[in-house]
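Page 37, top half.
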Amino acid sequence: MLFKKIFEVNAIEIIKTAKDMQARSDKVRCQGKTIVFIPTMGFLHEGHLSLMREGKQYGNDIVVSIFVNPTQFGPGEDLETYPRNFEKDLELLKKEGVNAVFAPEAVEIYGEQFQTYVELEKLPNHLCGL
């Protein structure tokens, strides 16, 4: 029995669909909790973890997304070789006391017939675009 309680404390809910994420969020808010959402592309590092620790000051339900967004990569960029280690990320999230992970597939976010993109003409000429 003691093991079960320890396991439940360290368990992270893994959510794959937007519908399930919305349902979970509604349930948590109905319990009077405040959700802190930290979007990431995974392969977590100390910068990400510090955001989770900071987030605990603002809410009591920490949700992290792990989504490597294909639209953030241009032709010939490193989408396929972008580093991923979901199991290691989960271990780090458990240590930080994260409650849930939203880890959708691209088709869940964009749908099968996705065709709309935003093309920036001026912004890429300065700041990170350089």
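Page 37, bottom half:
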Amino acid sequence: MIEALQFEFMQNALMAGLLASLICGIMGTLVIVNRIVFLSGGIAHAAYGGIGLAFFFGWPYLVGTIGFSPIMALLMAAVTLKAKHRSDTIIGVLWAVGMAIGIILIDLSPGYNVDLMSYLFGSILTVPDSDIWLMLGIAVTINCVVTNFYTDYLALSYDEEFAQIRGVHVKALYFLLIALLAVSVVMIIRMVGLILVIALLTIPPYIVEKYSTSLIKMMIFSSMLSAIFTVCGLWISFTFNITSGAAIILVAGTGFVVSLAMERILPKISRRAPGMLEE
């Protein structure tokens, strides 16, 4: 990996990966504890509409997606609050409509010279300096918001009714969370693509949740685990010349399987240990 860091594109990729890990650790934790994974998936796929919008009008990729994704995300958030019993269906519709808009706009784009694979599966090795600075700004913003409203988000995540009794502005905080999630998803798509983005958002927090005693520890350890997955995935990608985003998710998926196996193995060992000692 040290040899790979001689190249500027690998330095940028590593920096982007570490910043994305910080974002995923914080936002992914809130996604898991608030049980909005499906909503996150809807935002990620609806973001394709923003990609199509950007190409059709000749805008930079981020202008289209950061403009389009939060709108779709807030629509989905409103649905989850107003029609909870039908939220999964409506989110699925918005998810499909967003992707359809993106595909049609790309079809109608003059010249039609779009590398769709880079948006479906990511292109972390081509992340420019400007995106890294933007990711840094988003990471700092998310960190400041979550730090400022930490106790409110803690109450909202585990007991919404208690949060309302405490005077927490539940709806405002929820919409703010979804807006931040939409922007985060847009940035992570650049890394691993819209198909794999949910895996990076959810796998590290899911693994860490069982061993964390507080929300803040879950965020910190999730960020660290995500960074490990990212660095290992980049090393595998560089060594074997395979798609970096897929390599990162494959490492994360392996970690997920190992964690499930450990859940089954460790209790059996602990149950057998007393008997073994008695013998």
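Margin note: Confidence is low (pLDDT under 50) at residues 272-279.
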